[in-house]
Specification:
- It is globular and about 50 Å long.
- It contains 9 helices and 7 strands.
- It has 2 domains: about 120 residues, P-loop containing nucleotide triphosphate hydrolases (Rossmann fold, 3-Layer(aba) Sandwich), CATH 3.40.50; about 60 residues, no CATH class.
- Helices cover about 55% and strands about 15% of the residues.
Length: about 190
Amino acid sequence: MTKIIGLTGGIGSGKTTIARYIESKGIPVYIADIEAKKVMEQPKIFNALQTAFGTDIVSNDAVNRTKLSKIVFNNPEKLAVLNSIVHPAVKEHFKDWLNVHQASPYVLKETAILFETGGNSDCYKTISVVAPVEKRIERVVKRDSLTKEQVKERMNNQWSDEQRMKASDFVIVNDEIEVAKKQVDEILNLLKIQ
């Protein structure tokens, strides 16, 4: 049976960079955020999102995630509606993906909300990627063209690094990428994955 390694971290922690490094070791990687974008384009989900949030969220025949995130940000009720539409579909999509990779002894599932959604219960082991707050803010400002205040607001809506670290089997400190890669190698070695 394929074992799922859960990888998580807050915004700007560099979890996708770490996931790509693990993928370079030959381990299949599922990046939930990227796959969720694809799932949102499925006709059934696309129509459900339009019904729930209106046609204003559509640009060029696709869900405009920026517009959608503005609607649900700091609105727990609307966020719950979004999650009730997208999360079950992503869960199914992951199940299908897992079937494709069932010959692999291990797969990695990268998701920002691993613990918040209870997704860790399906995992053999969990890894959290953490980084200093200022570095995380700097990365996201550069990557997403957000202000420092917007990044801090998003961080405040996520679990803290401390919460994730307590819940995880392993922690990677992603302050310097080469050091973080060595930590990944050590974890993979401990799990006998390399």
